[in-house]
Write a structure and sequence with these properties.
Elements lengths: L2 H17 L2 H8 L3 E6 L2 E6 L4 H20 L4 E6 L47 H12 L8 E4 L6 H15 L5 E5 H13 L3 H9 L3 E5 L8 H16 L3 E6 L11 H7 L3 E4 L5 H14 L9 H8 L4 H18 L5 H8 L6 H6 L5 H12 L3 H5 L5 H17 L4 H7 L5 H17 L1 H18 L1
Helix pairs in contact: 1-3, 4-5, 6-7, 10-11, 10-12, 11-13, 12-13, 15-17, 15-20, 17-19, 18-19, 19-20
Length: 456
């Protein structure tokens, strides 16, 4: 390896280490070695057993890191260590094994991840409606459901469906202008246009298109000027018969901090919910993953064990599989249930252990508070400020912050759509009262005991 290539690769490694957490970088990308750089191609060697996994999982981040060092004209080509370098490919036709360059990224780019297609999406009862609606929209933009609003908790496949729509629209009709963005990217772009006094160009980019795909639209909450601009963008596209697809972690009626006129428009089309995957779907997802990545478990029950441990979302499910496979690869041990238990016990306890140590939820705390103070849930969450309601509400918010891992923003949302500053104020008031009032401390201890009894 030449000194110049060593220097370039060291800079690329610095970029990759910043983009990924330390353990992921160390396991999967630190072993990569550059072989040659010529004709706008950087050929990178990957351990043979990990080549497919690195290409599928880290191809985009690797390409982005190389572009930051060498510029956007350089293409990464991944090859198994010891294999011959692939022949040069014509411009615009990256080598098999390279991650195709997909534009400036998800926030700016024409389409999302090219590997997230309908063929790769595992259908189950938890997502059947959303999948069918997304497929209908992709095949007939602006003729099926407009807008299509896909909602559900993080990690259940909303972004996958959004990217699948963009990829299928493009493959059916490359002439259609498709723009994929996120709520955060839209906000940042708009603020940049305002500061640069270039709003006309911004409007052209988001309105002179055929399909607009927006991920995490809940990010627009409490951003007045951005909400107004998005409202006008939405109207311009909808009135012109252009397709709009949105995703959010909540249904429109729960986006309480969003302007009413935007919520009404989001609800005017089809709202399709994606729920956490059931066991059958989790097994199918893991089965597809091991087939694609040519993983061969040494224990037939391995996938069932992982599916029973991780029940909340697809991202955590696949992350658990990655963790087990990586541990087996690093230690040279077989892929067995015994190994999986050893690797996952700390992060994902078994169902029996979870049942014995389940942490209380905000709903648990609200129910116990209402029961102790003789209130209804509606009273607790209402705007009312009467002392018989205000103190229990402040106490419940205080305990929600103490006993759960939820953010102030999420606690406020679950207590009638309140602002995070309201939750912080409630916690401060409660702390002060507990410091000076023995009766209040006794009440809180009794309430903690009641909550603990409820979740056992």
């Amino acid at each position: 390896m030449s000194t110049e290539l060593e220097h370039i690769w060291a800079r690329v490694q610095d970029e990759l280490a910043l983009a990924l957490d330390a353990s992921t970088y160390r396991i999967w990308l630190a072993p990569l070695r550059p072989r040659e750089l010529s004709d706008g191609r950087l050929v990178v060697e990957v351990p043979p057993q990990a080549c497919g996994w690195v290409r599928d999982r880290f191809g985009r981040v690797l390409q982005a890191g190389v572009e930051r060092v060498l510029g956007p004209s350089t293409t990464v080509v991944l090859v198994p260590a010891g294999a011959p370098s692939p022949a040069s490919s014509p411009p615009g036709n990256p080598q098999a094994g390279a991650e195709p360059h997909s534009g400036p990224g998800f926030g700016e780019g024409p389409v999302g991840n090219p590997k997230l297609t309908f063929d790769q999406f595992v259908i189950g009862d938890c997502n059947r409606l959303a999948h069918a609606a997304a497929l209908a929209v992709a095949e007939l933009p602006a003729q099926a459901y407009n807008p299509l609003f896909i909602c559900g908790p993080p990690g259940v496949g909303k972004t996958h469906l959004l990217s699948a729509i963009g990829n299928l629209v493009r493959s059916h009709d490359p002439a259609l202008a498709v723009r994929t963005t996120t709520g955060e990217a839209f906000t940042n772009d708009f603020l940049g246009a305002l500061n640069g006094r270039n709003t006309d160009s911004f409007k052209a980019r988001f309105r002179d298109i055929d399909v607009l795909l927006v991920d995490d639209v809940q990010f627009l909450e409490r951003k007045t000027r951005t909400e107004e601009e998005f409202f006008h963008t939405f109207n311009a596209l909808h009135d012109a018969g252009r397709q709009i697809v949105l995703t959010s972690d909540r249904p429109p009626h729960d986006l309480r901090a969003l302007e009413d006129r935007l919520r009404e428009r989001f609800q005017a089309g089809l709202v399709a919910e994606v729920k956490p995957p059931d066991r059958l779907t989790r097994m199918a997802i893991l089965g597809k993953r091991v087939q694609q990545d040519r993983i061969r478990p040494d224990d037939a029950e391995l996938l069932a064990l992982i599916a029973d441990r991780i029940t909340d979302d697809v991202r955590s499910l696949e992350g658990a599989l990655i963790r087990v496979v990586a541990f087996a690869s690093l230690t040279g041990r077989a892929l067995t249930c015994e190994l999986a238990c050893e690797v996952l016990d700390g992060l994902y306890p078994s169902p029996s252990a979870q049942a014995q140590s389940r942490a209380p939820t905000i709903e648990d705390i609200q129910r116990a508070t209402c029961r102790r103070f003789g209130l209804s849930c509606e009273e607790l969450l209402s705007p009312g400020r009467a002392q018989r309601v205000a103190w229990p509400r402040q106490l419940a918010m205080y305990l929600a912050r103490e006993l759960t891992n939820e953010s102030l923003l999420e606690i406020g949302r679950r207590f009638g759509g309140r602002d995070h500053t309201t939750v912080l104020h409630a916690c401060q008031r409660t702390s002060s009262r507990l410091a000076s009032d023995h009766a209040s401390r006794v009440a809180v201890d009794a309430l903690r005991h009641s909550i603990a009894s409820d979740v056992l």
